[in-house]
Each structure stands twice: as structure tokens, then as C-alpha cells.
Design brief:
579 residues, mainly alpha, two-stranded antiparallel sheet, 32 helices, 68% helix
Length: 579
């Protein structure tokens, strides 16, 4: 034992002497030193575990003074030789180096990655750190050094021109790990400097750089275009990072269908990960894969994707992304939609009245897509219930929810002539006043949604004149709506088609005098006035319209604080002089 210890001491002394000799200005001397170093490490490397850190750091330090390229390559080879005996200790020593990494540290990592005998374990170790390590500390999200270092190391590995084969071999694992790292890096930039990191060294920047290096080295042009478009790279470090990642996964799923299953296997365990951003990205990836997975996949991938999304619904931060993914099932075709309809419809409809508006928006958007394909028998029993759930959203301040609610109601037209035809016809009339008024909403998205919905619902009007009006020139896409002219034609068609419903329509318009939007108040005043104005004088008594009540409501509205509303009311009252 004493002899062995002495031998190790002599070996260490020899190696440290070689490290000093690497600084010799003579290239022949440093070249010879490299031969000795590599020979000794290769033959006795197993004995050097306690000395891995000083040897690795010593080799990196020596590279600073080496000017001969052959000697520099030999020194890098010595790092690789040492790693062939003790890979993880060498890698961990490199990860301890300060960020940003020096050029020699980067080259050392790239040399390790080039070695086929080392690269699998190297990639697995680095991805394990960024997936399963302590990524940040506390609510302040102070980034942890090891996670920062492993992210930078992955970027350095992918930057190597020799890493193309490695990237292809570990494509799914690297993409999943770096996508989740983009998520877990969010929000740490503000505390990075205070935590002692050098200027410009942030978790967000490191994650974006590593992902960029991966995309470039993969040669995936579709993935690069996805992030080049719409400022995708910058959005990776913003609140919109999930949208940028969605575009990336969509491109990958289309250009590399063979990787879809492996990508799912990589992210699925992290739907229950330790970090909320990690879970969010995992569900975002799975939800987007649904959109690009045919039902015919031999490995039953679509079923596994849907099951993972249903399981994610119970985690509040994931619910929005899970609902979005469930809505994507429509791209698998009608059979898939009908197969998953019971669970998907239940998940989406139960979320329509959620307190979180982002969840409501996703639920309605998903339902619009599902209703475009699902068979009628699946919807008929819940059709009226869906209508009742939609209606409160017509009055939401959120423009997106308002638009999606009108659009969703329009998609229900597919089911309006079935077993629930009469019931849906009543819902059509109940919501028609709001559709008309919001066809001139301040929000362009709401306007487009109302026009689209009115066009879809038109065949259910049970009157050729009303159908012609709602599908005619007024509401044609791309045409500027002349609202007063439209109201005149609408009133004429409505009076002719539904004389017994004129009074309820007038009252519905008056109800909107209390709208929270000045534009809708003004539209309502104009609408009720145009309606009454177009009722023939000789038959007015048969319509049972309480003109006095409407006039009083208009006079009250004339005192509204908004000049635009008062102007609309004045114009409306001018049309009622014959009453």
C-alpha cells in the first residue's frame, strides 16, 4: 500500500511537471510533453480520480500559454484521455468554470462530445442536470450555477461543427430538454446580476443561445424558420415563450414525423415535474403534437397524448395549455374527434365559466374546433346547455372572449336543424340582437366573429328574406359595414319574417341601453329606432309595441355622459316623429 501511494505521488509529480512544461516556448518541447501526458494518463488514468479537478484545471490553464496548434490539440486530447477514465468528474470540473466559458473550456467540451465513446454519457449527464437538478432557488428565482453551466455546456457542444451526428442521435432528448430549459429560465434575468453573475450572463440568454445552437446544428430549416418568424427568438425570453415554442414544435412535428413519439416520451414525465414552467412546456409540447399526429400511428401515440392532456387538467397552471391541446384533436379527423368526444367535450364545456379568462378563451376556442367536426348525436343532448353557457361571455370586457363566444355560437349552426331544432331556433332569436349590435363593435375581432356567426346561422332563419340579408352584401367579409343601412334592411326583413317577435326584439335592444360599451349603447338606440321606424303605420297596433316606454328609455339615455351616445340617441329620436 505504501509502495502504491508512493507510485501515485510520483505519477502526480510527473504530471504536474508536464503541465508546467506545456508553457515552454519551444513547440518541439510542448509537443513531446503532450505525448508523455497522454501516455501516462492513458496508462494510469484509473488511479487519478482524486486528482481529476487539479489536472483538468491545470490543462485548461496551460492552454492559455500554448501557441503551437499541434500542442494545443495534444493538450485537449489529454483532457479527453482523462475523461475516458473519469468522464463525470472531468465534466463537472468544466462546469465549475466561470461563465461565460473561455474558448479553451468550450473546445474541451466539444472534444469530449466528438468522442463516440463519451458523447452518450455526456449528453445524458448535461440534460439530467437541466431537467432534474435544482434550477433556481426560491420565489425570487435566483438561477443556480450548475444549471446555468450545464445549459451553456449543451450550447457549446451543439456549436461544434463535429456535433451534427450527436444532435441527430439525441434529437428528441436535446429538443425536449432545451425547450423546458427555456421555460425554467424565465424571469431570472432581473436577479442574475445580484446573484453575482457576469454582465449579460442570464438563464434566459443561456437557454436561448443553447436552443439556437441546437437548431442550427440540426440543419432543420423548418425549425429555424419557425423561430425566425414573428420575432420568435426574442419571444423565447418573454411572457410569450410558450407561443414561440409552440411554433417550433409544430415545425419539428411536420418536418420530422419520426421524432414525435420519442419527443413525447422525453417530455411526458415532466408533466409532473418539480418546476411549474417545466410542466407548462411539457404540456405545450404534447398539445402541439396532438395537432400533428394521425390516428393511424402504429404506436397509439394520439391516445397517449390525449390521456396525458386529460391528466394535466387537474394542475391549475397547466389547464389552459391542456385545453388548447385537446382542441387540437380535430386535426386527426372526424373519427378521432368522435372517439374522444365524451371526455374532450366534458373537459372543454366545464371550463367555459372558469374564473381565469385565459382558460375560458382556450375552452371556447377548443369547442369551436371540435364542433366543426363532431357528429350531431354527440352534441344534441347538450346543445341548449351550451347556448346558456355561452351567452354570459357576450358581455365580457375581454375582446378575445367576446369574439370567441360569438364564433362558438355560430359553429352550433351545424346542429340547429336536428332533434333540438325548435329549441335552438329560440336561442337563435334570443342572441340575434347581440349579434346585430356587436357586428359594429369597437373590436375588429368581435366584428369579424359576429359576421361569421350570422353567416353560419342564416340558413336557420326559417325565412328566405332574412337568410338572404344575413348572407348578402352587408356582412360580406372584407366589406366596410354601413351600419345604418344594414339596420334599415335588417328591420325590414325582420318585420316581414317575424311580426310577432318585433316587440321582444325592440325590448332586447332597449336592454342594451345599459351596456358597458358606449358604442353598443349607441348601436342599440339606432337599432330600436330603425326597427320602429320601419313598422308600417297602418299595422302598428297589431305589433303591440310600447312606444312610450321606448321613448322614455331614449330620453334617459340622452343624458348619457358620452357625446357619441347622445348623438346616436338624437338621431334615433328623429326617426320616431310619427309615433
Amino acid at each position: 500500500s505504501t509502495q502504491s501511494t508512493g507510485s501515485e505521488t510520483h505519477m502526480l509529480a510527473l504530471l504536474l511537471g508536464c503541465l508546467r512544461a506545456l508553457g515552454d516556448p519551444a513547440a518541439s518541447s510542448t509537443s513531446g510533453t503532450c505525448v508523455v501526458l497522454n501516455s501516462c494518463i492513458g496508462a494510469r488514468g484509473d488511479e487519478l480520480l482524486p486528482q481529476v479537478k487539479p489536472l483538468t484545471n491545470g490543462l485548461l490553464a496551460a492552454m492559455d500559454s500554448i501557441t503551437d496548434q499541434q500542442s494545443l490539440n495534444g493538450t485537449l486530447h489529454a483532457v479527453r484521455t482523462l475523461a475516458s477514465h473519469h468522464l463525470l468528474p472531468v465534466v463537472n470540473t468544466l462546469l465549475d468554470r466561470p461563465l461565460p466559458y473561455s474558448a479553451h473550456c468550450v473546445r474541451a467540451l466539444q472534444v469530449l462530445a466528438k468522442d463516440r465513446a463519451l458523447q452518450d454519457a455526456l449528453v445524458e449527464h448535461l440534460t439530467d442536470i437541466v431537467n432534474n437538478g435544482q434550477l433556481y432557488d426560491g420565489d425570487a428565482k435566483v438561477p443556480q450555477p450548475l444549471a446555468m453551466a450545464a445549459t451553456a455546456a449543451l450550447g457549446a457542444v451543439c456549436e461544434s461543427p463535429d456535433a451534427a451526428a450527436l444532435v441527430q442521435t439525441h434529437y428528441a432528448l436535446l429538443l425536449a430538454s432545451l425547450a423546458m430549459r427555456v421555460g425554467t429560465a424565465q424571469g431570472s434575468a432581473a436577479v442574475a446580476a445580484a446573484a453575482g453573475y457576469a454582465a449579460g450572463v442570464t438563464a434566459e440568454a443561456g437557454a436561448e443561445a443553447a436552443l439556437r445552437a441546437f437548431v442550427e446544428r440540426s440543419g432543420d430549416k423548418a425549425a429555424r424558420r419557425a423561430l425566425d418568424a414573428n420575432d420568435g427568438w426574442s419571444r423565447l425570453a418573454s411572457d410569450d415563450y410558450t407561443d414561440a415554442l409552440t411554433a417550433l414544435i409544430a415545425a419539428v412535428a411536420e418536418s420530422r414525423p419520426a421524432v414525435r413519439s420519442a419527443l413525447f416520451e422525453c417530455v411526458a414525465p415532466y408533466c409532473k415535474g418539480n418546476f411549474v414552467e417545466q410542466r407548462c412546456v411539457a404540456v405545450v409540447v404534447i398539445g402541439e403534437l396532438v395537432q400533428h399526429t394521425p390516428v393511424t400511428d402504429a404506436d397509439n401515440l394520439l391516445a397517449r397524448l390525449v390521456q396525458a392532456l386529460l391528466a394535466a387538467l387537474i394542475d391549475p397552471p397547466l389547464k389552459r395549455f391542456a385545453l388548447r391541446g385537446l382542441g387540437n384533436v380535430v386535426t386527426a379527423g372526424e373519427d378521432a374527434v368522435n372517439h374522444y368526444a365524451p371526455t374532450v367535450l366534458d373537459a372543454l364545456t366545464s371550463s367555459m365559466e372558469h374564473a381565469d379568462e385565459s382558460i375560458v378563451l382556450e375552452a371556447m376556442g377548443g369547442l369551436s374546433k371540435v364542433f366543426s367536426l363532431v357528429e350531431e348525436a354527440r352534441v344534441q343532448p347538450i346543445l341548449v346547455n351550451i347556448c346558456h353557457r355561452i351567452r354570459p361571455a357576450f358581455g365580457k370586457l375581454n375582446d378575445g372572449i367576446r369574439a370567441e363566444a360569438f364564433r362558438l355560437f355560430g359553429t352550433l349552426a351545424r346542429f340547429g336543424d336536428g332533434a333540438q331544432a325548435d329549441a335552438f331556433y329560440e336561442q337563435w332569436h334570443a342572441n340575434l340582437p347581440l349579434l346585430v349590435l356587436h357586428a359594429a363593435d369597437d373590436a375588429r375581432g368581435v366584428v369579424d366573429a359576429c359576421r361569421e356567426a350570422l353567416g353560419r346561422l342564416a340558413p336557420l332563419a326559417r325565412d328566405d328574406g332574412m337568410t338572404a340579408l344575413l348572407t348578402g352584401r352587408h356582412l360580406r367579409a372584407g366589406r366596410s359595414l354601413q351600419f345604418a343601412e344594414f339596420l334599415d334592411d335588417f328591420a325590414t326583413a325582420f318585420i316581414a319574417a317575424y311580426p310577432r317577435r318585433v316587440n321582444p326584439l325592440a325590448n332586447a335592444f332597449v336592454d342594451q341601453f345599459h351596456s358597458q360599451w358606449d358604442t353598443i349603447k349607441g348601436n342599440a338606440a339606432a337599432a330600436v329606432a330603425r326597427l320602429l321606424h320601419n313598422v308600417p303605420v297602418e299595422t302598428r297596433p297589431s305589433f303591440h309595441i310600447n312606444a312610450m316606454l321606448i321613448a322614455r328609455a331614449l330620453v334617459t339615455l340622452l343624458a348619457d355622459r358620452s357625446p357619441a351616445v347622445r348623438r346616436s340617441v338624437a338621431g334615433a329620436m328623429a326617426l320616431l316623429h310619427t309615433y
